Structure formats: C-alpha cells, structure tokens
Amino acid sequence: MKDLVGLFPYWAVIMLMMTGLYIVIAQGNLVKKLIGLGIFQVSVFVLYIAVGVVDGGTPPILDDEFAVYSNPLPSVLILTAIVVGVATLAVGLALSVRIREAFGTIEEEDLLPLTAPTHPVVTGPEAETDTNAGREETRP
Amino acid sequence: MILPDAILAHAAVLVVVLPLLAAPIVALIRDHRIAAPLAILIALASVVLALELVNATWGGETISYALGNWQAPIGIEYRVDLLSAAMALLLTVSGSLAALMMSTAIAPEMAPGDRPRLYAALLLCMSGLTGIVVTGDLFNVFVFLEISSLATYVLIASGSGRDRRALTAAFDYLILGATGATFFVIGIAFLYVVTGTLNMADLGERISDAGRRAVIVGSSFLFVGIALKAAMLPLHRWLPNAYAYAPTVMATFLAMTATKVSIYLMIRLTDVVFHTPGELGRVNFAALMPPVGLAMLVFGSAIAVTAKDLKRLLAFSSIANLGLMLVALGLGGVAGIAAAMINLFNHAIIKGGMFATATAIVHRRGSARLDAMAGLSRQMPVAFIFLVIGGLALIGVPLTAGFVSKLSVVRVAFDLGDWTVAGGILLSSLITVAYVWRIFEATMLAEPRSDAPKGDMHPAFWLPVGLLGAGTIVFGIWSAPVIELSTRIAHQMAGVTP
After folding, report:
1. How far is Cα B418 from Cα B413, in angstroms, rounded to an integer?
2. B76 contacts in chain A (CB < 8 Å)
3. For residue A102, what are the domain limits?
4. pLDDT confidence of A138, banded at 50, 70, 90?
5. What number is the ipTM of this complex?
6. Confidence of residue A139 (pLDDT cuts 50, 70, 90)
7. CATH of the domain at A97
8. Which residues of A touch B137 (CB under 8 A)?
9. What is the value of pTM for the model shown?
C-alpha cells in the first residue's frame, strides 16, 4: 500500500508512457499518432519532475526559514523538453495538413498503397485536391 | 592558423552558434539570390572554424569551453577532442558542399520564394549535428539532436515538389525519430538520477559507483534511442524512404552526416559515459553489434539489388555500410574504433560523391529511376564516370577508398580470428557487385531514349562532385591521412598515447 501511494507519480508515468506508445503504434490516423506521441513525451516530463521532488522540501527559493529545497534542475530541463515537444508537434501537424492536401487522406491504411515505391510519381501537394481520388486509385 | 585569437578562443561554440544564428536571418531574406550566397558563406566560415578545431586538437589536446563562463560540472561544457573536431569538419564540409549545389539543384522543384527557408533548414540541421559532436553535456546532446531532427524532417518533406511521397516519408521519420529521441531522454533521466550529473566526463567517473539496475535500464534506453537514429536493424525503416524522396541534394547531405553522427554518439557514449571501450554500460551491447551489423550488410546489399531507383539503391547500400561500421565498433578495442572511423570518413566521401552525382543527373533528367537512365554513359559521360568511381569504391576495388575501409575491418577480424565477420564482408561485397552492376547495366547497356535531355552536368555540380570523386580515388591510393586521423582518434578515445 505504501508503494502504491508513495510511488504514485511513477505509476502514473508508466501508465501514460504505455498509453502514449500504444497509441503511436496502434492508431492509423496521423493526428491521433501525434496525440499519442504527445502523451508519450508528457510521461517523460512527469518522470523528470517527480524525480526532482525532495520529501518535505520547499520550492527552490532562498529563505531563512527553510533549509530543504526541491531540485530545480529537472524542472528546468523539462522546460526545454516541452519546447522541443511543441516544436515536434507543430512540424507533425503541418506535415499532416500537407499530406491531407496531397493525398486527400490522413488514414494510414489509405496512404499505404499510395505511398508504395511502385506507385507512379505524383508531384506536389497541388496535384490532387479531390478527397476521394486516393480511394479510387486503389481499386483494381 | 588564420583566425585572430579572440575568435579562436571561442571557436568551439562559434562553429555551432554561427549557423544557428544565421539560419533565421537567411529565412527572413525574401530574395533567394541573396539568401543562397549568404548560406554558402556561413557554411564555409564554419568549415574554417572546424579546421581550427582540428588543428588545435591534433596533438591529443582537449578544448574545454565553459558556456557563459559557468564552470563544469555545474555549467554546460563544450568539450572538443580530435574525434569531435574531425566530426565537426566532416559535418561542415558536407553542409558546404550541399549549400554549393543547393540553389541549382532545387530550382526545378521549388518556387523561388520558398527557397530561403530551405537554406535556413540546411543551416539549422548542420548546426544541430555539429552541436551534438562538440557538447560535453548529455542533455545538450538531446536538445541538439532534436534541432537537427526537426530540420531534417523539413529537408525531407521539401522533396514534395517532385514526389508527394516525401511528405509521408518525413512524417514516418518524425514519428520514429521523436519516439527514439524520447527514449534517449528517458535514458538520460535514469543516469541523472543515479549519478546526479549530466556532464559526460563527470558521468563517466561517477557511474562505476552508481546503482547497477538503474544504469542498465538507462543505458538500454539510450542505446535504443541512438540505434534508431543510426538506422540499426530492425529500426532502419525510416531511412530508405527518407533518402529516396528527399531532394537529392539534401539526401547527399543526410547520407554524409545524419547517421554518421549516431555512430559518433555510440563511440562517445561507449567511452565517456560507460568508461569501458567496446562495452555500452554493463549490458554488453558490443556483443550485439557484429551480428546485427552483419545482418545489415547482407540484407542492405540484397535489397539494394532489387531497387528500381538510384536513390533507393544508394539508401540500402548506406544501411549495408552502416552495418560495416557497427561490425568494426563491435569488434572493439583501439583497432576496432579506428576501423569504424576509417569507414565513417571514407563512406561519407564515397556515398556523398554518388549522391552528388545523382543530384546532377536528377537535375538534368528529372528522375532517378534506373530505367530512365538509359544511354547515360553517352549522354552524360562525366556524370557516368563519377558513378563508376563511386560504384567501384562501394564494391571495395583496390585503389579506391572503399578498399581501404573494407581492408581495415577485415584486418581487425583476422587479428581476432573472427571468420564469420570476414566471410560476411566478403559475401556482402559479392552482392555489392550485383547492385553496382545494375547501375552500369541501366546507364551503359540499355537502349538510350532519343528524347532524353541533352547536356552533361550543370557547372554548379562540378566542384562538389569533382571533390568527392577525387577524394574517393586519392584516399584509396594515399590512405595515410585518413588512417592516421582515425588511429589518433581511437588512441585518444581509449586513453592510450599513440
């Protein structure tokens, strides 16, 4: 019971990490994949912050009344990692928009036949604007 | 050598910061005719800085630069030894060669208004990769890894002007790359918890007293993260599409640098963080490398035979050559690291030369498909000759750099009596003959098309293609510089005086 409560942040991290990674692998929708990736990254943020907490420590602000402070370094590192995560998400979403414009779908199973090496070359995102064009091409 | 001392004292940080700061400026310039020369200028300036770093570390010295004058291990330390300096030189030279070809190569497939931002992405990618090799701080490695990766996704996606599959290739790499980088951060978290430091040198000293289980878990996560970036089997899925659909000039840069930096990280973390050369942590990852590397060698070469597109063929050949580097690393010891470095430098030159030639061909003919290359030997004889040089070097024919590379690994394998490795390399060379033959067959024997565009390489490609092609031959005949450099690096890494 003590482990369950005392290590609660770590249980949460494991839950989030597995959930995120599972979504990345199992979901076929590109935006959902990115959401999964976000959850996966957030779990690592929580891990770092949980590691920095000191039992009975106060926030790391110098004061005569307190002697024990939490470790500020992991939180600072995670500030950087959050920025990195946001940038990755932004690039990922921008790419999904362009993929939607170019292929007319963001579902992986519809994209697979269109992106096979044997598929004839189609230039640029402007080449195809009809949303149903992708599906029609896969018909025998 | 040529720079004033005031700049020289900060060379370690300038080589990263200069392209990093120049990138947004280049991106903001509207006119691509101004942006392109500026990007080239910045890249060449970085080469000079990297040369200075090599010069300063040649004798085995280590430059330690305290960022913002916060001393290590509290502050972030940039630590440059010969390995870092040589890698920085490779990265900046690759960046410069790509920058030189860029404006001509990209012209048919990208609107002039978009080009400055692509040049900025190239500078950012170069800056990020250089940052990885000069920093002494593990978390800093992660940040630079992400800077370079984000720029790489953009570089790959920019191939959509020619083929829309560049977008999905970039997206796949983004998902895998971001997952790999997150694994890397998880690894850093475990090591930080048990050692209380992020400085790699400091970490190396404290890790022997640290809790065993946490170190094993942490180093495993680090290893998987790096292995993904190094396209190690079975985590190689992103590489062929990324190289095949990226603009060829960007594929040239990526083939010369991106995966090489992961090999650098493996060497660096082998020695600094985990302290025992040839062994990552106390889990023996080194024992894993020869079998995986051999599998990559054979599998990469075999798939390259079936490729229908020159860029995809070269991409699978890159996987095979990465396998060779991993084999050399896994064999371990000073000789193993030296062999891995020889392979790293030579392969960058050979594959860079072939991709640069492919850039010139795609620029002239608009396609890298092998069946569109009929008659190339008569219509573009110069480009054809450079393809032949590169192809012979990939096989490992004597008097080319590829021979020196393969010989160095085989020699280590012989010394250790490891016949599987020697046999595997021989087998892969035989398969290499098959895929190089496919290039010759397509370019020389196939019936030429009469409607093929006329003219040989555009003059913009002469310098990069010529330099890399000449390097392939020169370092095959006069192999002393590369071998000397690699041996010095290996000695420095193992802490033995040469």
Report:
1. 5
2. none
3. 2-138
4. very low
5. 0.89
6. very low
7. 1.10.287.3510
8. none
9. 0.91
